[in-house]
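User: Could you walk me through two proteins back to back? I'd like the raw sequence and the C-alpha cells for each, with a short line separating them so I can tell where one ends and the next begins.

Assistant: Of course. Protein one, sequence then structure:
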Amino acid sequence: MRSVVTRCALVVALVLAASYGFAEHVCRYCQADAAAEAAKHGPHYAPDRVVDVKHIEIDVTPDFAAKTIHATTTLEFAPIAKPARLVTLNAVGLRVEKIDASRKLAEHSSTGEHLKLLFEEPIPVGETVKVAITYTAEPKKGLYFRTEDMGYPKGEDHIWTQGETHEAPHWFPCFDYPNERSTTEVICRVPEEMTALSNGKLIDETVDEATGLKAVHWRQGKPHVNYLVCLCAGHFAKLEKEASGVRLGFYTQPSFIDEAPNSFQDTAAILEFFQEEIGVPYPWDKYDQVTILDYNWGGMENTTLTTLTHETVYSDATENVRSSQGLDAHEFAHQWFGDYVTCKDWSHIWLNEGFATYYTHLYAGHKDGRDALLYGLWRDATGSVLPAIIKNGDTKPIVYRNYAEAFDQFDYRAYPKGSWVLHMLRSRLGEDLYREAIKKYLERHALSSVVTDDLRQALEEVSGQPLDAFFDQWVYHGGAPKLEVSHDWKPEEKLLRVTVKQGEPIEGKTMLFTFPVMLRAHVGDEVVDHEVEITKTEQDFYFKLDAQPDVVRFDPQFTVLAEVKHEKSEEMLEKQLQLADDMIGRLLAAEALGEKDSKAATKALAAALGEDKFYGVRIAASKALGEQGTDDALDALLAGREQSDARIRLQVVEDIGKFFDTKAYEVLNAVVANEKNPDIVAAALSGLAKYPEAAAGEAIAKALDSESFQNQLAIAAARALGKRRDPALAESLVKALRDRRFELPGRRYGEVLVGVGRVGRELEDKTIVREFLAELLQDPVIAVRLGAIEGLGELGDKRAKPLLGDLAATSGKEATTAKKALQRLNAAPSDPPEAVEDLREQLDKLRDEQKELKKQVEQLQAT
C-alpha cells in the first residue's frame, strides 16, 4: 500500500471527555432545532401573571406496567392586580376525574393543552384559593418510564421527569412559565423497595398496608420556578457525602454503583469553591444527583435534584479521557444561576446557561490552574462560537425574542458566548470587583426572576463603569469581531507598528466592536506590554523597543472573544511555540504551524507533542501534524504515541487515523488489538473504516459484537461501519443493532443510525434497512427517533417518503428533522463512500504537487 495522505474526520463517542467540547452533555445545549422560519414568528415575552401561585402539591402514583399515572395536584393561588373569575392552567393530555375548590366553580373545561377553571364569582385580589385536581395521564413528555418490559435491564425500573422548557404540564397542571415561582410538595407512591426523590427536604415515608405502596413526601420550602419541579423514583443505588453542612447524594442504577464514585468525586470540592467564589452560601436544603437511563440531555438542574445522563458514569479503563467534572460543575452552578435567580423569559436564558458554563471553567482553573480555565474558553471560542458567527454567518444576539420555539434559545449564544461575556466582564473589571457585583446581583434578586439589565446595573454600581456600550455590542447585538492583525519592524526608528483591522458591522445586526486589549512584544528575555483601545475599523499602534521583537502577541491574556488572523513568519511561530508562560500563544503557534509544510515546522510540532507542559498544547501539536499530512508528520505522530496522558494518546491515534498509509494501518490494527482504553480503541476503529482490507472490516465487525462498559466499543464499531459504507455488511449491522437496542445508550444509538442509512444507500434493495429504521420511529427515546428519521433521509429509498411526509406535517423536533430528511431524500444520488472520497482528494493533491514540481523544474532549466 503506497503512502497517501487523507483528511478523514474522526468521530469518537466520548462522554464528557476532558479533551472534548462540553456542549454535547451539558443541560439542553445543542438540542435547539435550526429555526430557519424563526424570523416569521413574532417576538416572545413573558405572559401576564393573572394570579400569584403560592404553593403546588402533587400526589402521584405511577403505574410502571401501564406507563400511566394517577395524581391529584393541589394549587394555591391569589389574584394579583384585579379580581379573577377565569383561571387557565397549562395541562397537556390530562384526563380530569374531579376538581375540588375552596371557592365554588361554575364549570371547568379541557382543551388538550389547557385546563380552564371558571369560578361562579370573581376571586378578590389577595384572596388565596385552593384547587385540587384529580386526573390520570399517559405522558408522552414530562414524565418518562424506563422499565424491563421496554427492554431496559432487570431490576432498574425507574421514572423521571423533565420540566424545561415546557414539559411539566404533561404530568401536572400548572402555570408553566419561568416568571412564576412557588413552594412545592411532591408525594410519590411506589413499591416499598423503590426510592423516590424530589426537591427540598424529605418529610416522611409511610407504607399503606392496604396497597403495599410507600408514600414518600418531599417539600421544597423556598419558591422556585415550575420547570424545576422534579420526581425520580425507582431502583437506585446510593452514594453520600457531606460538605459545608450540605448533604450530597449520588443515585445511580445498581449496575453502575462500582463506577459511580468516579462521577461523584468532585462534587464536594465544587460546592466549597462555588461558595467561596460566588460569595453566597448554598441556598437550598440538600443536593442530590441521579443518573437516568437514556436521558434526553446531559443534565438538568432541578432545585436540589439534578438529573444526569447515565453516560456520565465511566470506568477506570478510560483513564482521564472521560470526566464528569464539567457536567457536575455546570449543573451545580445552576443552583445559584438558574434556580436561586431565574431568567424571566427565554430571551434571557443566557443568565442561566452562560453563568453555569463560565463557572465550570472557573472551577477548572481553581482545580488545575489558570491554563485549564483559558483552555476551556479557547475550545468554546474556536469550536463553537466563532464557527457559528464567522463561518455560518449567524448574527442573532444573545438576547433574542424572534425565536420559533423556546429550545431555539439553547444554543452557542446562551452557553459559550454567554460564558465569554462574563469572562470579558471579569477581565475588564478585575476579579474582586466582579465577585462583589455578582454577589450583589444574587442577593438583590434572590428567589426571583431576572433580566439582563439587572446584571448590568449590579456591575455598574460596584465598578462605577458605564457598561451600556458593552452590553449593546455583545448581548443585544450579534456577531463577534473579525480581526486582521499585522506588524512590521522599523529598524531605523526602532519602532514596532501593529495594525488592527476590523470587519465592517452589519447594519441593524452587529455593531463596530470597541474594547481594550493588550499588545505584547518579546525582545530577548524582556516582555513589553501596551494596553490599547480598539475603536475603529482600522488602527495603527506604534511602540518604541530596544531591538526587533522575537514574538509579537495580540491579546496575550485572552480577554477578547474574536477571530484573529495574525500573519507571522515561521521562525516567529517556532519561538512562540516555546513561550513557557503563554499557553494560548503556544496553541496559536501550533495551529499556525500545521498550515506549514516545512520540515522545520514538523520538527517544532514534534517537539511540542513530546515536551510541552500542558496537555492541550500537545493535543494541538498532534492535530497540526495531522493537518500537515506529510510523511514526516506521520512519522512524528507515530513517534509521539507514547504519552502518559490518555487524552493526548487519544488525539494522536485520532490524527494517525487521518492518514491512508501502510504504517498508519498497522498501528491502528495494533491499537485495536492491544490498547486497554476503550476510547482510544474506538478512535482506531474509526481510522480503520477507510481501509478496504478484509482484516479491517473483520476487526470492526468483531467490536460490534463485543462487550465493554456501556458498550462503548459496539457504538464505535457501528459508527465505523457507517463510514465504511460496505453494503455486504448492511445485514449484519442491522441485526446487531436490532438485537442490542437497549444494551446501547439511546443517544449514541440514534447517532449511528445516520450511518446505517448511508450503508443502506449502497444496496440495490434497501428494504431491510428501511424497515429497520421505520421500526425505530416508535422508539421511546427521542434521540433514537430523530436518528431514524435522519437515517431514512440518507437511505435514498423513495418508499420512505410517506413516513417522512407524515412526520414533517407534525410539529417539534421530529417535524423539523423530517423536513430536512425529505430534502436529502430528494437530493442527488448516492455519495461515494468515504474511502473513495479520500482517495479522490489525495489524487487531486498529487496532481497539484506534480504541477508545482514541473513548474519548479522548468524554472531551474530556464536559469
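----
Protein two, same layout:
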Amino acid sequence: MKTAIILSLLSFLLHIHTNAQNTIKGRVTDKVTRQPLESATVTLQQGGDGNIINYTLTDADGRFQLSSSSLKDRTITVFYMGYRKKTIPVLISRPLTIELEQEAVLLKEVQIRPGRVWGRQDTLKYDLTRFTSSKDRNVSDVLKKLPGINVEENGTIKYNGKVISNLYVEGMDVSGGRYNQINNNLKADAVQAAEVIEGHQPIKSLRGKTFTDDVALNLKLKPEVRSQWIYTVMAGGGYGEKALYDASFNVLQLSRNRQTVYTYKANNIGRNLFSDQQKLASGNSFDRVTDSNPPIFLPLPEPAMPLSQKRLLFNETHTASANRLYRLDEEKQLRFQLGYIHDRTTRQYGSEEIYYFAQDTVHTAINRHDRLKTDCLNGEVNYEDNAASRYTRENFSFAGTWKSGVSDITGDNVIFQKIKNSQWELKNYFNQLYTKEKYTWGIRSYIRYTHLPALLTVIHRNLPVSSADNRLIATCIHRRDELNLPDNINENTYRTVTGQTYESIPTEYEEMNIDNAYTDNALYGMRKKNGVNYQLTGGFRGELSSVRQENSYSAPRYSFYTIPRIEWERTDFLLTAAATVWWNRLPKQSYSRFYAAPSLYFRYKFSPRWKMSLSGSLDESEGGIQDIYPFHYREDYRTVVKHTGKVAVTVRQLYTCYLEYKNTVKEFFWTLSASYSHNRYNLMAERNYKDGNFYLSSVERNHSSYSYALNTIGSKGVYDWNLKTSLELTLARNEGKQLNENIVQNYRYDYLRVEPKIVWAPSALFEVEYKATVSCGGSGIGKDTRLDPLWDVAQRLTLSLGFHDTDFRLSGEHFYNDLSKDQHLNTWLADVSLIHKSGKWRFTASAMNLFNKEQYRYTLYSAVQSYTSWVKLRPREFMVSVQYQW
C-alpha cells in the first residue's frame, strides 16, 4: 500500500508544469579601482512598496546571482560599508555591472564591529583571524572553535551534524578527501577565512539544474601564504616503560594553480596516524557509486573501547604520503596521491561477558594480549575536466593492506590465535557528461577487483601451561610458514622446533582465499523545463565472488535498473521523487526478483534562517557472499559460522524529519532530526553456545526490527566573550528478535547520549576547553530479563595559561562508570605540558598520565548481551620535543 501511494505521487508529479524562474546575474566593483567587492549585500525589491523578495552576498570576484518568478517592477539595491548605497532597475537582457562610490562615514562615539560569521544564501563565512589564538597549532585547532562546526576525534568535520563532502584549499582538493593531511599540518595563522558551502555542486554544468544536499568547506589562505613553501620539522624523545620517540617532517605549498603536500610521521607515544591516510570526505553525491563491501571472512580483532586511543594505544607507527595537484587550466585538474603506513600495535584487555539466551544465560571471561602488524600502501590518479558544457572525470586507485595478528587468550583454557588477513584492490571510475541548453546526458562506469587471502591458526591447550610453554607455542605460530609446519602441530613439530618433547596439542587451521569483482555502469540524462528537472538513469550492475577453502565456491549476481526522477524547485521549496526499478538475478541460487524502490524528499525554507525537510523511502537488498556461502568455517578461536545458502532479503522503510535554524549575526545554529526505520527479513540469525564455542547460522523465518532516533544539536558563539558552546542530545530505541535453540526472543535496547562542549578564550593569556559525554543504556530481553540502566560519564577539562611566549597547559579527565546496579568506578587522568615559542622555534615538555593509572574498566550493553571489560593504559610518560618551521 505504501509503495502504491509513493508511486502514485510520483506519477502525479510527472505532469506538473510551473512558471519559469528568472535569473539575475551581476558584478559589484569599486568605481575607481575597478576591483571586485566581496560580501556586498545585494537585495531584490518590489519597486512600489520596497519589500525584499530575495537577497544574497557577492562572492570573492564580486559576482552575485538571484532568482525571481517575475521581473516586473523589480529593483536591485547594493549595500557595502564605506560606499554609497546604489539602486538600479532590473535588466534581464544582460548581466549587471554595478559600480559603487566610496563615501566618508563620520563615526561619532560609535564603534562599528563587523561580525566573525556572515553569509549569503548558500555560503557561510568565518573570519578565522577572529578565532585564532597563539595557542592553536594547526587549522584543526581553530575549526573546533567555530559555531556550527564540530571536529571529531578522528578529524571528521561536521557542519550542523552533516559530514562535509569536500574540503578545499583555495577551491582545490589536493588531499582527495584525506583532509587530515591538511588540517593537522597547516599552521593555524596561515588561514584567513573558512567558507561553508551548502548545497555544494562542484560540477559546473549541473549548477542550477539538479539538487544536492552536500556540504563543503573551503579554506582561504592569507595572501602572503599563498604559493609559499612551508616546511615543518619536529623531533621529540622521552621515557615511560621504554624509550619514546615522536617525529615528523611536512612540506606544503598551496597556491591557486598548484598544490603540494608531503608528510612523514613516526611515533610510539599512542598517537594514531591511520587517520592521516583515511578518506574522510566522500566527494560530491553525483560522482558517488554504490559499491558492495568486499567480503571479509576472517577479521582481525578490533575491539571498540570508550576511551581516547592516546590512552591505550601501544604502537610503533610510521607513515608517509605525497600529494600533488596541478591546475592545467581554468577547467582541467590532475591530482596524484601516494601513501604508506607501517604499524605495530600491542594491547592487553579482557572482559566478563553475559549472553542472555532463551533457555540459559551464558557467562564467559577472557583475558587477551594482542600483537598486531599492519602495512598499507595506497595510490590514486585523478583527472577532471570541469567546464560549463561538459564534465569528465577519470579516477584510478589501488590499495594493498597486509595484516597479521597474534593473540594470547586465557580463560577456561589457554588459546593462541594467529590471523593473517590481506587485501589487494584495484578501482577505476569514469564519468563523462555533456550539457547543451536544457539537456544533459552522460555515461559513468565503475570497476573494482579485490583479492583477500586469509589464514587462521588456533592452538588449544586445555591444561595449565607455563610461560615456557607459552613462548614455545607462540614461536610455532610465528614461524609456521618459515618452518613449513603441517596443519596439525603435534609433539613431533615441537621436537623439530625446540629439540624437546611435548604432549600433543590440538590445532585448528583455516585458510580462505576470496576474489571479488564488482562493476556498475549507467547511462543518464536530464532536462529542465519550466522549473522542473526530469531525470532518467538506466544501468547494469554485476558482481562475481569466489571463495577457495576446502571446497571452491563462486556466486555471480547481476541486476538491471532504471531510475526515473523529478525535481521541482522554487524559491522557497524543493520536491524530489524517484523510483528505482530493479531486476536482480543470482543464477546459482536460482533467485530472480523484480521490485521498485520509491523515495520522496520535500524541503521548505520558511525564511533565510529556518529550513525543514521530510523524506521517506522504501528499499530492498540482498545479502552478500558471506550470507549465502553454504560451507561452515571458523571465524576465530570461538566462533563457527554455517549459513543455509539461502538468499537473505531485507526490505527497509525509512522516514526522516529535519528542522534547521541558523542566525549568523548571533552565531547560533540549531538542528533537530527524527527518524523511524522498519526492516523486514526472510532469514533469522541464530546463535548457540556449546563447549566453549559460539555457533552462528541462519534459519528461514520472517521477522522484523524497528528503530527510532531523535537527535538535536545546538551551537552558540558569543563574540564579546570569545566563547563557543555546543550541546548534542541523542535518544534511540531498537527493537528486534533473536533466535536461540529454535526459540525466538524479543529484545529492546534504549540509549541516551548527551555531549556538551565549551571553548572559552576570554583573553590572550587564558583559554579553557571542556567536553563531556554522558550516556545511559538499558535492555529488555524476552519477558523476564531487564538490564538495569547504567550511566557512563566522561569529562575532559583543559586549561591553558600564557605568559609572553610561554604557555602552560593542564588537562584532566574524569570517568564515571556504572559497572552494575550497585557498583561504580571513578577514574582520574591528568596531563601537563609547557610550551615555549621563540620565532620559528617551538619547544615542548610534557608529562602524560600523571597519576600513573594502569587500568580502565567499564560496562556496556548491546541488544542481547552485557560485558564488563578492562584495558591496560599507557603508564606515566615524559616527553620533550622541538619544532622548527620556515
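Confidence is low (pLDDT under 50) at residues 1-20, 105-113, 463-503.

Let me know if you want the two compared in more detail.
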